[in-house]
User: What shape does this take?
Amino acid sequence: MLPEPTIRLALVDHQQLYTNLLRHFLQQQSNLTVETLPVGTPPLKEQLSHLAALPDVLLIDMDLPTLHIESLAQWLKNTHPNIRLIIMAKHCDAQLTRRLFALQVSSFLSKNHAPPQLLEAIHQVHQNGYYFLPDQLDLLRQTLDAPPKSPQKSPVISPREREILQLLCEQKTAQEIANLLFITRRTVEGHKTRLLNRTGVKNTVGLVLYAIRTGIVDFKGLSLRQ
Assistant: This one.
């Protein structure tokens, strides 16, 4: 069995005690490298731009006093699209959940979640591009249940692509999908690329939103990671 790839994680938080405890927990994991970015000066965008190696995952506190999350999320998409953004917040209520879905961040969790849940989110975001809890997806599905104001022509999606989209929405990795469908990982990635091109979205989170908006995936029957 191949060893798990090392995940480069950058942690940004202004609560020193919480940050120290969280960093200590994460540094105990054999396949994580953790770098803490200070809050304030220089600005976060400048710090990221000057790192010797960009992080795979950026874990950031929603309540940073100087954070403009919309600006940061858009900047990452435009300049560093391979950095996965995980948001931590004191409370992830319905309004914040909808807001973060609209920004297409990779994951968002309440600070009340236990560290192992966060660790699962980090690994899934790194492997699969996103990690959402069932209640978050259910809230989004309810929000998008209203029919669109004007009909739009949907792209033609093959039965195999629909099958792969269903498994992506179940938060399966490309390798897990390959194993389930008895195809290669490269074939899965090819189908995923065609799905991105046909739907016009930019990433896996966008595919999930597309699947919910169009009803092409049965979310009531999804088998989601907890």
Summary: The CA atoms of residues 166 and 218 lie 8 Å apart.
